[in-house]
Amino acid sequence: MTEREALLAAIVREPEDDLPRLIYADWLEERGETAYAAFIRVQLRLTRGSGSLAERRSWERQQRELLLRHEEEWVQPLREVLNLPAGVWGGWVFRRGFAEYFHLPAAVLQRYGAALAARTPLRSLYVHPCSAPEFAELVRQPWFGQIAEVYAPQTLLHLPAVIALLDSPYTQRLRHLGVGGASGDVDDYWLHACRERFGVQLHRVIPQLPPARSRFYAA
Question: Residue 154, SS3?
Answer without folding.
Answer: strand
